[in-house]
Amino acid sequence: MDSVPNTPPGQLRRMAAVWEQVLKKGGIGPDDSFFTLGGQSVMAGTLVRAAEERFGVRIPLRTLFEHSRLGEFTDHVVGLALPTASPAAPPPDTVAPNTVPPDVPLEMTAFQRRIWLAEQIDPSVRNHVPLAWSVAGRLDPDRLRVALGRLVAEHEILRTRFVDEDGGWSVRLREPWLPPLELLDLGEAPDDTSDDTSDDAADTPGGVTEWLEAALRLPFDPESGQLLRAALGEFADGRQVLLLCVHHMVIDGESIPVLLAELDRYCATPDRPRPVVQYREFAAHQRGQRDSPSWHTDLAYWVSALEGASADTPLPAPDRPEPNGAFRLPLPAGLLDSLCAVQSEHGVSWFMVAATALAVALHRSTGLDDITFGSPTANRNHPRFAELFGPSLNTAVLRSRVTADSTVLDVLLRMRGEALGALEHQAVEFDDLLNHVKPARRFGYTPYVNVTLNMNLLDDHAAVLDGARLTPLLIDELRSGYAKFGLTVTMVQLNGRLIGLVSHRGDQLGAEGARDLADRLTGLLTRFPEVLNEPVLPRG
Question: pTM for this one?
Answer without folding.
Answer: 0.84
